[in-house]
Amino acid sequence: MNALVGSGSFVTLPALMATGVPPVVANASSSVALYPGGAASAWVYRKDIGPVAACR
Q1: Which of 4, 26, 45, 50 is surrounded by the most beta carbons within 10 Å?
Q2: Which residues contact 27 (CB under 8 A, 6 or more apart)?
Q3: How many CA atoms lie within 13 A of 5 on its CB side?
């Protein structure tokens, strides 16, 4: 879900906090948990990513 619309934290952060995890720990855990999905989607779409042209 996070690779498609970027809202994985919208679900995972409140879920962690609802289980009693402190906010700072929940934020860090959510970020660490979502990193592999972001890395995997970057790897899958690597051929579609081209060089960024400089604005003139």
Answers
A1: 26
A2: 13
A3: 6
